[in-house]
Amino acid sequence: MIQDPVFYALAIPAVLIAGLSKGGFGSGLALVAVPMMSLVIPVPMAAAIMLPVLISIDFITVWVYRRDWSRADLKVMLPGAVVGTLVGWAGFQFMTEDGTRLMVGVIAIVFTLDHWLPLRPKPDGARPPGWRGAFWGAVGGFTSFFAHAGSPPVQVYMLPRGLSKRAYVGSFAVFFWAVNLMKLPAYWELGQFTSEVLLTALVLVPLVPIGIRLGLWAQNRLSDGVFFGVCYAFLFMTGIKLTWDGVSGMLG
Question: Do residues 39 and 73 make contact, with C-beta atoms less than 8 angstroms apart?
Answer without folding.
Answer: no
